[in-house]
Recover the amino acids of this structure.
């Protein structure tokens, strides 16, 4: 069964005449009669009663024409919806983000994007970096905010930002008054506060310390970077924090942010599964994010 055969049957039902139906359809009458006979043979029912002077729908024909019209209406509606999505008039975008990144970047990006594309629905999925990579590979997010290195080889990415890593120390800590950048090797005897396992920034903390020749003494763990900062401010230890997080003021008590020697960075990226179709909405969101990143550095 072909869509054109549905259209043919509907037109014959409207005209009640093969010649007029063929004229409206811009095909020869013999071709129209042949297509209808082919359709009736395939269905195993007679759709029209033919006589010398008239063409009348059978019971099966009435049902067929009614359903055919609904099918064609649905197809036409689908085409229009696809055109709307293509033209960014509607759609849905699932964005994955690490909590630490989403809380600092997305509040700047999402309002700008939604002002430009108000009918694109955004759904946010927040997960640890390891879980988020898995979700992205499985296609459960369209795009995801992650930091390098990526564990999953089937992910590709576009760079958003090289974000500096800052040292947060308690206000009364001896390093709080330092005018010079701090060598990470100086921190070997310090108590560290870090994110919990599975978070990409925790691995970065471990890597920075190990590159400096020691394993950090982690005395507190949290799943929230703002909690980490609060614990630092309360004098419970020191922590590495991303630059964008360090810029955010907390309550009355805040840690002191100190520059690290060599000014290490983490590379923030927007990742998606290799070979996955990237919608126009996703492309527009990536473009918006890159533009906004230039303004909040």
């Amino acid at each position: 069964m072909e869509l054109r055969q549905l259209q043919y049957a509907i037109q014959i039902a409207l005209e009640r005449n093969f010649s007029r139906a063929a004229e409206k359809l811009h095909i020869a009458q013999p071709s129209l009669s042949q297509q209808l006979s082919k359709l009736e043979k395939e269905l195993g029912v007679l759709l029209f009663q033919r006589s010398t002077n008239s063409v009348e729908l059978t019971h099966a024909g009435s049902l067929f024409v009614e359903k055919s019209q609904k099918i064609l209406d649905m197809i036409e509606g689908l085409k229009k919806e696809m055109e709307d999505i293509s033209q960014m008039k509607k759609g849905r975008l699932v964005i994955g983000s690490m909590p630490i990144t989403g809380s600092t970047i997305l509040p700047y990006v999402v309002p700008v994007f939604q002002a430009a594309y108000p009918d694109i629905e955004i759904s946010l999925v927040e997960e640890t970096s390891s879980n988020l990579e898995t979700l992205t590979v499985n296609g459960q997010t369209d795009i995801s905010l992650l930091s390098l290195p990526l564990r999953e080889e089937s992910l590709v990415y576009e760079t958003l930002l090289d974000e500096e890593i800052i040292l947060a120390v308690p206000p009364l800590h001896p390093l709080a008054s330092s005018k010079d950048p701090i060598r990470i090797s100086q921190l070997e005897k310090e108590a560290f506060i870090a994110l919990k396992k599975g978070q990409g920034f925790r691995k970065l903390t471990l890597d920075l310390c190990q590159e400096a020749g020691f394993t950090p003494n982690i005395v507190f763990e949290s799943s929230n970077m703002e909690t980490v900062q609060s614990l630092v401010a309360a004098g419970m230890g020191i922590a590495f924090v991303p630059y964008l997080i360090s810029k955010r003021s907390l309550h009355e008590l805040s840690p002191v942010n100190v520059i690290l020697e060599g000014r290490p960075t983490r590379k923030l990226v927007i990742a998606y599964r290799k070979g996955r179709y990237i919608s126009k909405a996703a492309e527009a969101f990536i473009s918006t994010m890159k533009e906004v990143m230039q303004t909040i550095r």
Q: What stands out?
A: The longest helix spans residues 59-86.
